[in-house]
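Sequence only, no structure available. Ideas?
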Amino acid sequence: ENTTEIVGLIFMLMYITFDCFTSQWQSKIYDMYGRNNVDPYQMMLGVNSSAICITTFGLIVSGDFPRVWEFFMVNPNVLVYNIVTAITSASGQL
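Reply:
I predicted one. Tokens follow.
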């Protein structure tokens, strides 16, 4: 239990730390490539794709991916809630 709590705390601190740099990195990319070449949707796609990769990597490394998969298989209606949450989250970024 303590190990799980420590890993969760580390992930939370990493999230907060990296989230602080998001606007600075976006500004650098806009300066580097120009606002005409990079639109906000591309930036959102990049950030969200990175989040998916980091989450998946964390689940695989921790060995929890099979548990999550099993949970989705036993409770298929949970997928609907995840999709609704993803849509509202993405539309909130617009």
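The mean pLDDT is 86.
Hope that gets you unstuck.
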